[in-house]
Amino acid sequence: MNKMMKIAVYGKGGIGKSTTVSNLSAALAMRGVKVMQIGCDPKADSTALLRGPEPMKTVLDLVRERKNDFALEDMVRTGFGGVICCEAGGPSPGTGCAGRGIIAALEKLAERGAFDTYRPDVVFYDVLGDVVCGGFTMPMRPGYAEKVFVVTSGENMSIHAAANIAMAVEGFRGRGYAEFAGLILNRRGVKNEDEKVAELAADIHSSVIGSLSRSQTVLEAEELGRTVIEAFPESAMAQEYRLLAEAVMRAAGGKI
Fold it and tell me: Annotated catalytic, 12?
C-alpha cells in the first residue's frame, strides 16, 4: 500500500465493535498489511484478542506512573500477525474525564512519533460511540482518522448511537475532519434487522458496506482469547471477516 490509511470505527458499547476491529486487523495482517490498532475505550480491552491475556500498560497508566518518562516502545505491544497494539486507557474510576484521556493518549503517541516509527499501512482507532463529545471525537480530527465507520445492529439503542455519530461527523464537515464512510451491520437476530439498518443508512445518506452473521464461532474464539481469524481460520465466519476487511478498504479508498 502506498498511503497510510487511518480509520476510526465507532459503535455503541457491547455491539461487538472491538471484536470486529480485531478480526479486521487480523484479516489484513494475514494479507501482508501492516496494521496498528489503537483502543480508545476506557476499558482498555480493544486489542485483547490480538495480544493475549497478559495485561498491558495503557498510555494513561504510563502517564500516571511515570509522568513523561517513558518511551514509545512502552506504549505498544506486538500482537497476532504483527499487529501493533496500543490502548489509550482512561482515568482512575470516579475521577477525570474519559474523553480527555483519549486526547492525552493520542497526543502522546503523536509526540513519540508512533506513525513515523512503525509506518503502518492501516491504523484502526477503536472508539466507544455511546457518546460523541469532547475526547471521543478526537480520532475524527485532522491528523488522525480520515474515514469513520460505525458498527451497528438492528437494536434501537445501537441505531440511535449510530445516527448520533453520523450527525457528529456531518457537523464537523468543512473543518478537515474525517468523512463518514459507511455502516457495518453486526447482526443480533432482531426482527427486520437488515431493513432497519438499511433505513438508517438511507436516513444518513450512507450505505451498509458489509455485514456479519450472528455466529457461535465468534463466542468460541473469544473464549479462547483469540480472533476468529487466528482460532478458526477455515471457518465461514473467518471468511466473512476477510470479505468485510476488503469492503472496508474499498470504502476507505484503498485496496489490498
Answer: yes
Which listed residue (45, 57, 74, 130) is catalytic?
Answer: 130
Which one is catalytic: 17, 34, 108, 147? 17
Crossing angle of helices 216-223 and 236-251, in 10° steps, is 100
Q: Cell numbers at residue 160, please?
A: 440511535
Question: Which one is catalytic: 3, 6, 41, 43?
Answer: 43
pLDDT at residue 37 is higher than 80? yes
Instruction: Choose, from 6, 12, 34, 196, the residue flagged as catalytic.
Output: 12
The answer to whether residue 17 is catalytic is yes
C-alpha cell at position 96: 477525570
Select the highest-mean-pLDDT range: 16-30, 56-70, 156-170.
16-30
210-252 per-position pLDDT tens digit: 999 999 999 999 999 999 999 999 999 999 999 999 999 999 9
pLDDT at 96: 54
Residue 190: how many CA atoms within 13 Å on its side-chain side? 19
Grid coordinates standing for 77? 505491544
Asked if 43 is an active-site residue, the reply is yes
CATH 3.40.50.300 describes domain 5-251? yes
- d(CA 215, CA 219) in angstroms, rounded, equals 7
Mean pLDDT, the chain, rounded, equals 90
67: annotated active-site residue: no
